[in-house]
Amino acid sequence: MSTLEMFGRKTLAATLLAVTLGAVAAPAQSPPQSPSTASPHLGRPISEADIKNWDIAVLPNGVGLPAGQGTPQEGATIFAEKCSACHGEAARGGVAPFYPALVGGPPLTDGIETRKTIANYYAYPTTIFDYIRRAMPYPAPRSLSDHEVYALTAYILSLNKLIGENDTMDAQSLPKVKMPNRDNFIMPYPDRI
Ligand code: HEC
Question: Residues lining ligand 1, judged by CB closer than 6 Å?
């Protein structure tokens, strides 16, 4: 057994002991204090402005999409400058295996191992917007303007022939784009919704 394994086991045993002791000791403690007195007084109250900065989720129905718009042509220029170094020319991939192509994709008929892409997998077009805005470009997330994100989303949808080359994407038009795999998701527990 390596030192690391021994250390790991010892730590686990210590943790289990601590948890067990905690569980045994719990009933003997006084009743729980109110949250205010129990607080460790760390951190500071969060302001509305701070929350707004983090509250960037875009839902499938378009709720959360910001003002602004963009076209595939505008997106092509931005893509060449900020994205193609990793995602390849015209988003075709091929730069490195871990930089995904953003166009095309095999049909999802070969089981779980099939490479999932925007065109063959994403259920909602708004996911593209949300993902780019929060995570791309990889080295500088949150650096794009809403206009740039709309334009890049339009470009990728257009490359995948899911919208026309001259279609403008904005908060109204984007949620209406139908993704090819949209109807192939199933709800495992519909009665729990
Ligand atoms: C430094 C390399 C790099 C750059 C530059 C970059 N990306 Fe990415 N991108 C990645 C990697 C790596 C992933 C996969 C991340 C993962 O799976 O966690 C990814 C994933 C994505 C995805 C999700 C693909 C999918 O199949 O789900 C989109 C969309 C995307 N990038 C768009 C962009 C756009 C638009 C730009 C330009 C603004 C950009 N990326 C710039 C490396 C990069």
Answer: 82-83, 85-87, 98-100, 102, 117-118, 128, 131-132, 136-139, 144, 152
Distances (CA, A) of 56 to 51, 69, 174: 9, 17, 16
Q: Is the pTM of this model over 0.70?
A: yes
pLDDT in tens, the chain (193 residues): 443 443 344 444 444 333 444 444 444 555 555 555 677 889 889 999 999 889 999 999 999 999 999 999 999 999 999 999 999 999 999 999 999 999 999 988 877 889 999 999 999 999 999 999 999 999 999 999 999 999 999 999 999 999 999 999 999 999 999 999 999 999 899 899 7
Q: What is the dihedral of CA 85, 91, 96, 99, to 10 degrees?
A: 90
Tokens of 59: 């839902």
Given the candidates 2.30.30.40, 3.40.50.2300, 1.10.760.10, 3.30.590.10, the CATH classification of the domain at 65-184 is: 1.10.760.10
Encoding tokens for residue 136? 């791309």
